Amino acid sequence: MLIECRKIVKRFHTGDVETAVLKGVDLQIEEGEFVAVMGSSGSGKSTLLYLLGCMDRPTSGDYLLRGKSVLTLDDDALSHLRNSTFGFIFQAFYLIPYLSVTDNVLVPTLYAGRSAGREEALALLQRLQLGDRARYMPEQLSGGEKQRVAIARALINDPAVILADEPTGQLDSQNAEIVMQILVQLNEEGKTVILVTHDETMAAYAKRIIRIRDGQILPA
Q1: Phi–psi pair at 62, nearest 5 degrees
Q2: pTM of the entire structure?
Q3: For the segment 57-70, what is each residue's pLDDT rounded down to a tens digit?
Q4: DSSP string, 61-111
Q5: For the domain with range 33-59+74-217, which CATH number is right: 3.40.50.300, 2.60.120.280, 3.60.40.10, 1.10.287.110?
């Protein structure tokens, strides 16, 4: 088992008000799956994705990665796990505006403490049909190109798991299809893909759909 969530609860505090965003989530994901997590805005799907990617900790419950609880890890160990195991793709791209396309792709290698060569980044850009954009700045790219740069950045550390949070949310239908086909190909190559979306068309690319409502996983 790659991922196992056991009774995960996540609460947020705003002043004196406590809000439970996840309410006892049980979830299992096998190595090599392509899973879509669907839900409306505020359902808890993005919070769940951040917990799976070790970007946040649950209030209670347990999260096991390959059979080992990650909740006992300190911040340094979590950071290492996050950078070595997960590749993140976000709706808003989050490219650094003053870095070139190639340097944006290389950013995760700095956090991981490894020195990937520019050749490695260029090879990824070539694969994603962005080889001629390697020296461009983000402002010179279209939305679809920015998201493909973000995918290259997510892949630079060769993660086992791709976490994609509404990756087509700012794209037209043609570019959205390109991005989803890339995710399908990555899954076919053995990577586990977890996609958060509210769009049934995008979710249909996955092999399994998990629906979440009001912080709880709905029965299949």
Answers
A1: -140, 150
A2: 0.94
A3: 999 999 999 999 99
A4: EEEEETTEESTT--HHHHHHHHHHHEEEEETT----TTS-HHHHHHHHHHH
A5: 3.40.50.300
